[in-house]
């Protein structure tokens, strides 16, 4: 039996001149939680839509549960569940009614469907809200219902597109617990997209960092962090005099043997041992008249990995936001043809 339930081969999607997904190659193992981590507009949702047979690729192909996305869309749809980034719940129906309609679409009915609905509503702790209209649900409750709904037909692969987008931190952690329970108790392969660093770190066994449609790196969160050795020192300078900063960064480069970089107004330095290096950094700052307003250090994070691979912070999404809006407009035009 093939241990990979999702495999892509140079999977590519273009919308006019915009390359949304650029020759990506993935192999996702049976039963793992795999994350696509990247900013808005990176190509995450487009990838999900191709794997779920909603969009056809421009070139390349993929297999889901051994079925070709170009030739066997019907078979794939029977074996996958999907929670879209945008809510698809009918707000005028109750939680139970939404589940019932969805179950009927998959050919479930009668006592079997009722039992599954009741069990899944208990699983996401919405059984007491089963007969309440969705318009009275909170955002977190709606998300939990969508996750429960996606499991009705017992899929083998579950796609979660930004499953905690817009939720408060407490609710987000609550959703993480459900996702981990699903993978553990039902042995479902889960592919989720996210731009939350903590989400990828906490949930995913492996992560693919994606930016502008290209896969930059794949590995476990720890493996990716090991791409950056030592500690990361973050420095904010009070008076941003270009001449002084240039002298300062040159001295630091001589000290640590690596070139510092500026991101979002912060000087970032990779060092082998922060506690022993920080006093020397202050000495160098004093020697050239640079005033440090803030200094902190930490072990490498996934955001540091993203910066290393792309040259910018994952939290700096302004450029990608425009790409995302362009892509959405192109997709809408395509649907209207």
Please, could you describe this protein's structure?
With 337 residues, the protein is α/β, with parallel strands linked by helices. It folds into two domains: 4-223, P-loop containing nucleotide triphosphate hydrolases (Rossmann fold), CATH 3.40.50.300; 231-299, Alpha-Beta Plaits, CATH 3.30.70. It is 42% helix and 25% strand. The longest helix has 19 residues, at 318-336. The radius of gyration is 23 Å and the shape is elongated. Mean pLDDT is 90; it is low at 317-337.
Question: What's the helix and strand layout?
Answer:
Elements: E1 4-15, E2 18-24, E3 27-29, E4 33-37, H1 44-51, E5 59-64, E6 67-68, H2 73-79, E7 80-83, H3 95-105, H4 110-123, H5 139-150, E8 157-161, H6 169-186, E9 189-194, H7 197-203, E10 206-211, E11 214-219, H8 221-225, E12 231-237, H9 242-256, E13 261-263, E14 266-271, H10 274-288, E15 292-298, H11 302-310, H12 318-336
Parallel strand pairs: 4-9, 4-10, 7-8, 8-9
Antiparallel strand pairs: 1-2, 1-3, 1-5, 5-6, 10-11, 12-14, 12-15, 13-14
CATH class of the largest domain: Alpha Beta
Into how many domains do the coordinates divide?
2
Question: At the fourth CATH level, what is the homologous superfamily of the largest domain?
Answer: P-loop containing nucleotide triphosphate hydrolases
CATH fold type of the largest domain: Rossmann fold
Rg calc = 23 Å
Number of strands: 15
The amount of beta strand, in percent, is 25-35%
Shape: elongated
How far apart lie the N and C ends? 41 Å
* String of helices and strands: EEEEHEEHEHHHEHEHEEHEHEEHEHH
Fraction of residues in helix: 40-55%
